[in-house]
Amino acid sequence: MRCSAAAFLLIFVAVYFAASERSWAEDTSLHGAIWRPESSIRKPQPLIAGLEGHAHAFTNIAVFVPDVAIEPPTPAAAPPTANFVETPASIACIYGLVPRSDGCNPNVVRRDVIGGAKAVAIVDAYDAPAIKQDLATFSQRFGLPPPDLDVVFASGSRPDNDKGWEIEICLDVEWVHALAPAAKIYLVEAKTNSYDDLFLAVDKASDLIASAGGGEISLSWGGNEFPTQLNYDPRFNRAGIVYFASTGDVPGVSFPATSPLVVAVGGTTINRDASGNFINETPWTSAGAGPSSAEFIPQYQSSLTAIIGNRRGVADLAAVADPATGVWVYDSTNSSARDNKGWMVVGGTSAAAPIVAAITNNAGRFAASGNDELAFIYSNSNKFTDIQTGTCGPSLGTHGAYNSALGWDFCTGVGTPNGKGGL
């Protein structure tokens, strides 16, 4: 069933960004209806030549609200319903960060990953006023250690609150802590979601991570490519820092994921049997993927010219993104989605980027640069789980759908994390 965002607003009163032209789909996989936006990244308005569109905005929304309230399992017991929503322990199990057991069933497994070092920074727009309390609640529920989180205002003053970005912030912060629990986390909040403000926040995050001795920066946002985006690429060339960006949740590609200095993280669907046992991963059909229209092929992809020609191809890696197999997120103050607040099920490549950034931090390799990390990934592709079946991307147009295959492909890159070795 499909309806316009405006019609959905009339039915359910308060839904994110009523002005969006995004359509919505009903998913019944979580014991009731989940109303989800088809895209968790709303593309910016069309760019004017020469980037006069500096004021255009990135927006990322990734909230999926069950019609029937559900909560994560407690350390002592599983929930009474068969909702297989991913937990820190189940994701650690699937990606081999802890020994696999009990089918990696999120209602059963309880072993969280330990580790993490130095720092991870997250760049988002606007403010989540209760993020420290929400992260503490998330950590307590899943048996994680107390977090070390600093919130930094890139402009020097607290930004306004925006409900869609608030959920994005909770997702990013909570899942970095879930998979790199010993790492310092910097949340750098941009004043708005404009280019100027977001890249000011990127620069601030880079300074913080450099001062911490190196680490990772997660960017769960993106927008249409534009001819002069190459002028922004040097912002991602900082010694000791690796940048990770979501590839997007609509067919095609987005910047900054297409920057050759950024690790582009695509999305997967987690497949389970009726009992909740993990079977495998396939590409999330909505994940952004394809060749860049602006960036030329980097050296680390030189062996892929038969697939991507002379352009930068994304994704490089992938992780869970499908909202139907989404992750738990806690947001105590959000009231946009039918006055929903508390525990939510969230998806999109918004989830994949911080998850891979955190796993990379936990691996402890700390590359000399983003380019160094990407060269390492491509030269060690055998250390990742290769996704060989499924499709993603456009169903019509010049390229058609992209097919997963043996080795690198547009949908999932070299694959998904398999322990810490490849990262």
CATH superfamily: Peptidase S8/S53 domain
What is the number of independent domains? 1
- Would you identify the regions where 5 or more consecutive residues have pLDDT less than 50? 1-63
Termini separation (Å)?
40 Å
Mean pLDDT: 82
Question: If you had to describe this structure to a student in words, what would you say it looks like?
Answer:
Helix 3 packs across helix 4 (163-179) and helix 4 runs parallel beside helix 7. This protein starts with a strand and ends in a 20-residue tail after the last strand. Strand 2 and strand 3 (34-37) form a beta hairpin. It has helices at residues 5-12, 88-94, 131-141, 163-179, 195-211, 305-308, 349-363, 370-379, and strands at 2-4, 23-27, 34-37, 41-42, 59-60, 65-66, 119-125, 149-153, 184-190, 215-219, 241-246, 262-272, 278-283, 290-296, 311-314, 317-320, 327-331, 342-346, 391-392, 402-403. Strands 7, 8, 9, 10, 11, 12, 13 and 16 form an eight-stranded mixed beta sheet that branches. The chain has a four-stranded antiparallel beta sheet with strand order 1-2-3-6. The chain has a two-stranded antiparallel sheet with strand order 4-5. The protein has 423 residues and is an alpha/beta fold. It is built from eight helices and 20 strands. Residues 1-63 have low confidence and may be disordered. It has a single domain (40-46, 54-403), classed as 3-Layer(aba) Sandwich (Rossmann fold), CATH 3.40.50.
